[in-house]
Write a sequence for this structure.
């Protein structure tokens, strides 16, 4: 078997590699332009291939390429939240925010187009992908806080803060990436502890967490 | 001239009244169902007219009716923010939030469908209407705070809080309108002062505001 294997194995790899190459070309275009300004011709040109070849890999055309690129970007973004469960909790949050803000920086126009809504390529599928990222972010935060059964008030607080971070990212891009990355990161961490403290006044579960965070710092 | 005026004047009113009647029927349907579940037949039935009559007034069909209903709802929502410039500032904010939460309560399914994104009727026009409401909310807050030239950090704080309020409203609807209206209102006001206080540590303009709010309470 061994001597005959290389050719099909090479071919399979070729298909996957080609697919990945087209996806990367699409990602870099969709990251820095609004979807309206990206055509399959641009993708073909960026990848150095013909337009029919792009269609062979993505018969659904631009919408399919966009969704595949978005799925790939969402995976990359979810990796930003991977943070070892060691060291002070707020420092872990700052590290994750560092990676998140670097991602926003690198995907500026695409990030804005996607989250500002009303995009031509927005569908219930793209919304589900974005919601999946938000859900993962909330799960990561709660798991670092070692909460397995978060009550309503704690869940709301975490989700409101995640939404506020998204809003901050969009304004940050609008404002020419001001305030600077490090200031924005620290400010967002401070807001996290502030809103948790407010909720602590209404919710014993969150109050216990706030005490743990204070001891941990 | 006077004796001949009534007839055309009556006709013009009739057209406007009919239009308003159709719009109100559409609004009450779009408020409590996702747009996918509202048809022109439903609107015609709710208004007690024929489907062709609905088309005569809204030749763009469901999308046009949806956008007109949304524009009308947005106007109503913007009226929620009208609050006289008297009395303690945080009490004014609580009053506006009371009206806002009542609006969310009355337009539950439509509010969710609109803001959760990926809706079949979402376009750049519907997004612009929603963004207009957010902008008006921010302007109202800054005008009550008597800030005419808000700096970046203060603007970001206000817009982040507005986004967090939206997120809270959606979770509130998801969770069967829990926590209760009054608790949610007070909690959101507390979050507003908490995030302003955090920003005050980084921004002299916001620090002055926080001092004024403390004196005002």
């Amino acid at each position: 078997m061994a001597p005959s294997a290389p050719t099909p194995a090479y071919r399979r790899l070729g298909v996957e590699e080609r697919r990945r190459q087209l996806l990367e070309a699409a990602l870099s275009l969709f990251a820095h332009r609004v979807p309206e300004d990206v055509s399959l011709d641009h993708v073909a040109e960026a990848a150095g291939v013909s337009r029919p070849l792009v269609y062979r890999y993505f018969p659904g055309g631009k919408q399919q390429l966009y969704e595949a690129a978005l799925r790939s970007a969402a995976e990359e973004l979810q990796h930003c939240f991977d943070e070892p469960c060691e060291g002070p909790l707020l420092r872990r949050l700052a590290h994750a925010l560092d990676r998140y803000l670097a991602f926003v920086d690198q995907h500026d126009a695409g990030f804005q187009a996607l989250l500002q809504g009303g995009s031509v390529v927005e569908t219930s599928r793209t919304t589900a992908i974005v919601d999946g990222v938000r859900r993962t972010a909330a799960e990561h935060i709660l798991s670092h806080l070692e909460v397995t059964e978060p009550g309503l008030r704690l869940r709301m607080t975490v989700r409101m803060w995640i939404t506020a971070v998204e809003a901050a990212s969009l304004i940050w891009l609008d404002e020419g990436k001001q305030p600077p990355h490090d200031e924005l990161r620290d400010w967002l961490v401070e807001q996290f502890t502030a809103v948790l403290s407010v909720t602590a006044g209404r919710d014993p579960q969150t109050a216990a967490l706030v005490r743990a965070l204070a001891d941990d710092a």
